[in-house]
Queue: 2 jobs
Job 1
Amino acid sequence: MPHSHWVLCLHGGAGVIGRDQPAARIAAYREGLAAALRAGANVLSAGGAALDAAMAAVRSMEENPLFNAGKGAVFDASGGHELDAAVMDGSTLSCGAVAGVRTIRSPIVAARAVMERTPHVLLAGTGADDWARDQGLETVPNNWFDDEFRRAQWLKAKEAARVQLDHADDGAKGTVGAVALDSSGVLAAATSTGGMTNKMSGRVGDTPLIGAGTYADNRTCAVSCTGTGEQFIRHAAAHGVHARMLWGGMSLKAACNDLVHRVLKPGDGGLIAVGQDGSYVMEYNSPGMFRGAADSRGAFMTAIWDD
Ligand code: ASP
């Protein structure tokens, strides 16, 4: 279909998000979501590419310590941070990802660099960190990602010997992601995370795995997931939405509902998705999901719970 319409959706993580948090904190999250939405929407309204818009939204949240990506990433079991990110362009199926990186300031920028500058899709661990540094990407010491709120959260989880979503019980959140349809009809997805609090060192979640936490194909949709990564990997969640549409003939809404409410378990998390026809879905099975959407017709909204 001929396009001029654009759409951007983003998430800042799904989970148990307490309604009893201080109003100022809730307002800060909403402002963080709105700032990311503006960053991506500005790209699209200027005629920019879906991937650039999704990246701009994710970059904004990576730099915001309220979200579990980049600065403010959760602590792993060793008291450090290992970050995952992926991008995908639905017009070419080009994609790139990094997993378990410790010193790259922007994992999403590194993911895109893997896509554009290597013959590979996924670089992991020290090889990825070293490569990014050699490429001139900005690096930081691992403790640059520290945030005292996250440290307290980790110490609590560690004491209880729990591995948890960053937003499991105390209102802290969330992996970040964005999906976009640009005015040329191209779809793209981008996702970035610190993973799960107190995860084993070396654990990789769904975020950097193409088809699990991140997927885009112009024939159907672009998807970015958040929640218990192992569940999204096991069910190839993001690709599952695409497959239901392409081969099952489902609408975007039916495909997302099926995945989130029938395949995944209550509490696992959620996803955002935008379709080739400009429809979009932000569906979750946890008590809340930080999210937002904007489009060329003037829509601009952020939300946390079902209200
Ligand atoms: N999906 C992420 C992971 O398992 C966590 C999250 O979405 O909060 O690494």
Note: DSSP finds eight helices and twelve strands in the chain.
Job 2
Amino acid sequence: MKKIPIIIDCDPGHDDALMLMLAFGSEKFDIKAVTTSAGNQTQEKTLNNALKILTLIGAKVPVYRGAEKPLFRNLIIADHVHGETGLDGPSLPKPNINSESISAVEGIAQILQSSKEKIILVPTGPLTNIATFLLAYPHLKDKIERISLMGGGIFRGNMTPLAEFNIFADPEAAHLVFKSGVPITMCGLDVTHKALVFQKDIELLRTIGNKSGTAAADLMDFFSIFYRSNRTELDGGAALHDPCAIAWLMEPDMFKSKSCFVDVEINGTLTTGTTVVDFYNVTGKEANTEVVYDIDRERYIQLLHDAISRLP
Ligand code: RIB
Ligand code: CA
């Protein structure tokens, strides 16, 4: 079966790491490159973390360093969730690969320019690199088939009452991406707070018995600390956000979604970074986003387990 051509843009980050394991372990994707964004930690750390994870799983793929900060705002990080390194918890191997000499934006441009087919972008961090690419290379926009992202939410936020971290971290970038006209799949907090990983699921990953399974379980043990003390309504589950953006490309029937018009607030005192989802089409505006809001959790866990089982 033909593999799906994608470029991953991420800010590892524990759930980004699991997303990379799913993407590479699934064997369903022709992964052209991995680019890194500043978000969960600084660019220095997210890049190093991406190189560590790719080394662990034996992935040979070009890696490009992305922006150091958002388009206009100061960098905010999520060390309260991901720790000082951005991947606290497991001990991971030193990278045996280096990043490329050109930037993430130039790398994306080169790949799209030379590709005979359209490519799907899969950002799971702030959208700074994607927005910068769209600004710098507008003539290559048509080479993007779709953007399948983790970010936003219909009814809630996790950085403010209404804004989710990836969007809040760089709202201007997100606004530009949602306005771009590129078809978007948005895996926001509505679906990711149903993509829950419980201790039994972590132990299932650990029983795989390979390096990747052990690392995935150790990563989830650390990631769960935040959720068990700050999201008690999730009954001990951790919201495994980022792999949703990959899993939707693999098995969209595992999810529920609706085509909606979505815009991003960039001026509100209380609402900046909110993805404003016109779920009932009250504005009459044309839908620009497939908004994902539900998931078959058991299938999700099985997908992760099967992919990680294929890794070293
Ligand atoms: O709000 C969750 C998102 O922010 C995830 O992508 C997580 O990795 C962080 O980047
Ligand atoms: Ca992320």
Note: The longest strand covers residues 255-264.
